[in-house]
Design goal:
- The protein is α+β, with helices and mostly antiparallel strands.
- Helices cover about 60% and strands about 15% of the residues.
- The protein contains eleven helices and seven strands.
Length: about 375
């Protein structure tokens, strides 16, 4: 972008009056201001301890730039920023409520950017998402962070080590923040890839807990998509405004590099979602096959048990026949047919043999024996 002209002191600016009431004093023990500095020619000129001191220092240096870093600020702090820098109330509302999707909006000469940062936690093997709101004006950059990621202190140190880049203005700091957020996606992609490899192993090993892990990782990839996919369009929108806003060529190169990285990351995330869908289908097929095998084994076991029961029942019936005949002929009554018959004993034995043989033949024909 071209060299910025010297601007008049802040009190002389003709801004529209703010409709926001004067903020209440901040408690002295509040620590939402992570870092606040005023830069001149890319070098730190002052490090105010409070927002009020930052506003005063910036008024005293009309050619300076303020970079204010906040972490979960209070409503009073954001309203003080709104009144000082004429920020749009809708943007302030978004910064207060958080839980916004990545977006880029322009309110007059102020750019409002919402980013979703991510980091991979090794111990629980899960992805944690943070939210970052950035206000970019002619001579200020304000970051409102909700969550642990990204580490903006590292971004600030890197920019302070290259004052020639920071001297390009708040846009340079914004692009550095975009670069840090997108670079933070790389470890997440590597961690997710490792999780995918482990899940594939668990699927073919038949781990019963793998379905839950696939579902949890799928939900994380949905969140990851929501963080990366809108960012592609945002970066292209910024690149489309290069000529209109006279963006410096060095910053243009930075942004194109960031756009390439986020496009690659977005494609990887889309691939992860597709792969997880396929893995879930394969897992369901394997589980179904395992269940079918178990049902078949149970059916075979039931069939074999039924065959054994039929054999036992058949032999029990065969052995019951002579017992019945012997029981009848063994009754001790005085008056009884065939009691004094000479052929009674051989007849009883023959009857037992005939009945047993007949039952054996019948059961054999029915494949019970």
């Amino acid at each position: 972008m071209p060299e910025r002209p010297n601007r008049p002191a802040r009190p002389d600016r003709h801004r529209p009056p703010s409709t926001t009431p004067s903020p209440s004093p901040l408690p002295p023990d509040h620590h939402s201001v992570v870092d606040s500095a005023v830069y001149r020619d890319g070098r730190r000129a002052a490090s105010p301890a409070t927002l009020a001191d930052t506003f005063r220092q910036l008024r005293e240096r009309p050619d300076g730039m303020a970079w204010i870093g906040l972490h979960r600020p209070t409503q009073a702090e954001l309203h003080s920023l709104e009144a000082e820098f004429n920020l749009h109330p809708l943007a302030i509302e978004d910064a207060l409520e958080a839980h916004q999707r990545p977006k880029l909006e322009r309110y007059g000469d102020t750019l409002f950017v919402v980013l979703r940062a991510a980091r991979y936690l090794d111990a629980p093997e899960e992805v944690e998402f943070g939210e970052l709101h950035v206000f970019v004006g002619p001579d200020f950059l304000i970051t409102v962070r909700h969550g642990a990621a990204p580490d903006l202190s590292a971004v600030r140190r890197r920019m302070e080590e290259t004052p020639e880049l920071l001297s390009l203005g708040p846009e340079a700091a914004l692009y550095a923040i975009l670069d840090a957020v997108v670079d933070g996606y790389a470890p997440v992609v590597a961690g997710v890839q490792n999780d995918m490899d482990e899940i594939e192993t668990e699927v073919f090993r038949g781990d019963p807990e793998v379905s839950r892990r696939i579902y949890e990782l799928s939900r994380e990839m949905v969140e990851f998509q929501r963080a990366t996919r809108p960012l592609v369009g945002m970066l292209h929108a910024l690149m489309a405004g290069f000529a209109k806003y006279g963006t410096d060529e060095e910053l243009q190169r930075y942004l194109r590099d960031v756009a390439d990285h986020v496009t690659h990351t977005s494609e990887r995330v889309d691939g992860f979602r597709q792969a997880l869908t396929e893995i879930l289908t394969v897992n369901a097929t394997l589980v179904s096959q395992q269940q079918n095998a178990e049902m078949r084994a149970l059916a075979e076991a039931g069939f074999e048990q039924n065959e054994e029961i039929k054999k036992i029942s058949s032999w029990a019936a065969i052995l019951f026949a002579p017992t019945l005949v012997g029981t009848i002929y063994g009754m001790n009554f005085e008056v009884m047919p065939e009691l004094h018959w000479a052929a009674g004993y051989p007849f009883a034995l023959l009857l037992m043999a005939v009945v047993c043989t007949s039952l054996y033949v019948i059961f054999k024909k029915r494949d019970w024996l």
